[in-house]
Amino acid sequence: MLITFEGIDGAGKSTQVVRLKRHLQELGREVLTLREPGGTEVAEHIRELLLLSKHDIAPVAELLLFAASRAELVQKVIIPALDEQCIVILDRFSDSTTAYQGYGRGLSLELLAEVNRIATFGLRPDITFYLDITPEDALIRKFSEKSLPLAFDSEELDRMESSGLEFYRRVREGYLALFESERDRIEMIDAQLSPALIHERIVSRMTRVETLQQASR
Ligand code: TYD
Predict the structure, then answer these.
(1) Is residue 97 within 8 Å of 67, Cβ to Cβ?
(2) Ligand 1 touching residue 9 (CB < 6 A)
(3) Domain of residue 18, residue span
(4) pLDDT of residue 158
(5) For residue 212, how far is its CA from the centre of ligand 1 (angstroms)?
(6) CA distances from 58 to 4, 19, 101, 192 (A)
(7) Whose CA is nearest to atom 4 of ligand 1?
(8) Ligand 1 atom 5, closest CA
(9) Is the pTM of this model over 0.85?
(10) Which residue from 186, 168, 196 is spatially nearest to 5, judged by alpha carbons?
(11) Which residue stretches of 74-194 are H helix?
(12) How far is the CA of 16 from the centre of ligand 1 (A)?
């Protein structure tokens, strides 16, 4: 089973990934958690280029670098783990590309669909948890967690995060559009709820997905 987490930076995905992993392990399941971009030697190099460098990267090149990192991870790690009946939890997957490179950078959605299809080898998540938050609230959260003054040009922000508030507004619109078009796969949760309540919602949806899957076997 492939589970993905999505949302703009600062939505609180990583906390929920950890909690869900612990929950599933307590039920005796084999679980692998990964985050994109990265996860293989080459993909980690691509991550550095994409996030840590301050290079100005052309939007199509950025798209292809995220896709290259994903193709590495899918072929070398995700597909083998799924073949071993492992539950794979991914912090970001192809919806990030649609939201960030499509809606955020303005690349054609047809081009994105094609690149996503190639990079994922056609793999589709069984369930996606989208944690919804406004970019303003996400920024406030990020800076208050680190006790830093709120500044849009802060050194604390990586290359993607330095793209500005307007960019993040478009990214969020992208996620909301994805949610509207794929409600069967995507569960939207208000990221401002308490972490415990968000976890509860995730577990309850997981139980429904697993029951459905068992019934269809
Ligand atoms: P990361 O440090 O993993 O942040 P987060 O905790 O928010 O997931 O950074 C990943 C960044 O890369 C994030 O800003 C989203 C962006 N991204 C894309 O633009 N396209 C993609 O396809 C993926 C996977 C990530």
Answers:
(1) yes
(2) yes
(3) 2-215
(4) 84
(5) 31
(6) 27, 36, 11, 34
(7) 9
(8) 9
(9) yes
(10) 186
(11) 79-83, 94-96, 109-120, 135-145, 165-181
(12) 16
Q: How far apart are CA 59 and CA 138, in angstroms?
A: 24
pLDDT tens per residue, range 150-173: 665 677 788 888 888 899 999 999
How many residues would you count in the chain?
A: 217
Ligand 1 touching residue 141 (CB < 6 A): no
Taking Cα atoms as reference points, which of 168, 86, 177, 61 lies closest to residue 130?
Answer: 177
Is any atom of ligand 1 closer than 6 Å to the C-beta of 167? no
If one counts the domains in the chain, the total is: 1
Ranges in the chain, pLDDT < 70:
147-153
Q: Which atom of ligand 1 is nearest to the CA of 13?
A: 6
Domain CATH code at residue 85? 3.40.50.300
3-class DSSP assignment, residue 15: helix
pLDDT at 151: 65
